[in-house]
Task: structure prediction
Amino acid sequence: MSGDRQATTGVLDGPPVVRTVEGVRAAIAAWRHAGETVALIPTMGYLHDGHLALVARGRALCRRTVASLFVNPIQFGPTEDLECYPRDEAGDRAKLQAAGCDLLYAPGAGEMYPPGFATAVTVSGVTEGLCGAARPQMFGGVATVVTKLLLQTLPDVAVFGEKDYQQLLVIRRFVRDLDIPVRIEGAPTVREADGLALSSRNSYLTAAERAQAPALFRTLGWAADRLHQGAEAGPVLAEAVGRVLAAGFAKLDYLDFRDAGTLVPLDRACRPGRLLAAAWLGRARLIDNVPVSPENRSAA
Ligand code: AMP
Result:
């Protein structure tokens, strides 16, 4: 192979890939031996700029970054999109290379859940309602796989997106409850120019649906403004649901206003809150959320 060819494939290939617990531990042990800090960025792949922003955050905090790619079967329900979830490992590696990520950990399902696997991590409280009601198997699956990823890699920091806000709170909860020695870092949602939150599942949208999709974020912004003006949540949420449906969404799993730390329902913007929604557009279930802060309340 010529030097040129090697240089080209080197760029396209991306960072080294390990597929076993033993392999990822060996790579990280070498970094530790050199006194280097480590950030983990867990993903299900089909990477976009939202994922890459998490890599950038990891690089800002630690000397080394490892991204994991694992489409976790136990967090999908029987009628959900596990089989057709978008995948492009070669493309993901190229993007990780460009983002300066040091290692890709991409275990198979047999490595993560070998025969006889019989353990689950269950979180109560913050898992109840919202996505936990619409997708009852999801947070148990997420808590179990993220616990395993953290114990397999033992990073200093693990970075997660606020895009999956309830998931971020669930992860913070079990990391604290199980005394897992890792700092959980949340990163803001990365959006398209028209406001749509980047998501691997946006690839399910037709061109017409893609044009309708920003209405979800737009409506959350409208509702946040109303709450900042001192409005009561009930009527604001009812009108927001109407706006999302009028924009072409088929149905909503939820659109609600919750305490930003506990996810307990709030009536008004009296303390830090979060507006959260999940809504169906064609084959895609889109989720999004925005902060509502009492400091932004206008003096009405
Ligand atoms: P996923 O591959 O969808 O499981 O997401 C992997 C990680 O990327 C999670 O921590 C997500 O919250 C985060 N993430 C997904 N979309 C975005 C986005 N648009 N902006 C920031 N983080 C995101």
Observations:
- The mean pLDDT is 95.
- Residues 200-294 form a domain with the Pantoate--beta-alanine Ligase; Chain: A,domain 2 fold (CATH 3.30.1300.10).
- Strands lie at 17-18, 38-43, 64-69, 103-105, 157-161, 183-187, 251-259, 273-281, 284-292.
- The chain has two domains: 3-187, 200-294.
